[in-house]
Amino acid sequence: MTDFKTLDDLGDLTGKVALVRVDLNVPMQDGAVTDDTRIRAFRPTVDQLSQKGAKVLLLSHFGRPGGRKSSTLSLSMVVGDVEKVLGREIMFVPEIAGDIVAQSLGIMRAGEVAILENSRFYPGEEANDADFAKAIAANADIYVNDAFSAAHRAHATTEGLAHLLPSYAGRAMEAELKALSAALDNPVHPVAAVVGGAKVSSKLDVLTHLVGKVDHLIIGGGMANTFLAARGVDVGKSLCEHDLADTAESIMDAADKAGCTVHLPYDVVVAKEFKTGAPARTINVHEVAADDMILDLGASATEALGDVLKTCRTLVWNGPLGAFETPPFDEATVALARTAAALTQDGSLTSVAGGGDTVAALAHAGVTEDFSYISTAGGAFLEWMEGKELPGVAALRG
Hints:
Elements: E1 17-21, E2 28-29, E3 32-33, H1 37-51, E4 55-59, H2 79-86, E5 90-93, H3 99-107, E6 113-116, H4 123-126, H5 130-137, E7 142-145, H6 156-160, E8 167-169, H7 171-185, E9 191-195, H8 204-210, E10 216-219, H9 221-230, H10 245-258, E11 261-263, E12 267-271, E13 280-284, E14 293-297, H11 299-310, E15 314-318, H12 331-346, E16 350-354, H13 356-364, E17 373-375, H14 379-385, H15 391-397
Parallel strand pairs: 1-4, 1-7, 4-6, 5-6, 7-8, 9-10, 9-15, 10-11, 15-16, 16-17
Antiparallel strand pairs: 2-3, 12-13, 12-14
Helix pairs in contact: 9-10, 11-12
């Protein structure tokens, strides 16, 4: 996956203009950014381009304005927070192409940084319009993509520009691609995948792809109930997609043929109601009552899964094992995450995790710093787990 250029391939950029696609689609409340993770992610790229003397123009979308300008979705709102993280003054340019951008570049000195207006204010962005991309490219010398989280979209600023300018992966993009390559493209076996979450229907393509790639498929969350039901287990009033029983069976059959072991829980934590501190008990999966809800994996199943991870060299994790936001139904996720973190720190396991719920669950377990790599990309990470080619990545390979 190193068939793309990085910032290492760039020399002195004094007087050159670098268009850098970043992800400024950050959560905000009362006019301030509430989580600056995505801003911190692109700082190394901006710093290095600036040190090389480039005039750096940051490109991003923000929200879903639907191709129309909206004062509440202007990227001018994030300038102050970006300045704080980057530790420098940032110019805001209220356009994305044309004379106003050219005039702003005339004012900027080598090494300075500006943020262009929300790319989704323009219909040409999501349409990946060639003329729109050319208009943006006209003001620049190189293109750098540092937004893996937007790489699954074939838009003008994620895909179109890469065909018009010399193109490079930024540091965050480079790190993400190397980590993902190590996890599924060229992993060290045995490989385990943890796939959790509420519904099998949202992860069908992931599961179908993974059974041909991994040695152990660990299924948790609500989707485990669907697989248990397909195996004839009465899951009571648990979240379950009974209409997908045949699909679950076909995934298990495919796993058998591929030599992949599917791990389903044999003990589970149940409660009569789903709320914090609800009376819960751990039982065998065959003892679930009609009014029980399965809300987590039991301690024995969790310990057995930990033993599986001890035999593996690579782990890919997407989705929690139980209803982790509501204690005590977080125990399996926390315990297995800590086992994976300890194995990673020992040097015996390469662990890559991603997806919104996953990031939150691993933060809850206190292991964010201990995995090999945690991707903050949601849709792009899932599409990568489905084995799909991401347009923004493919374009970098030219």
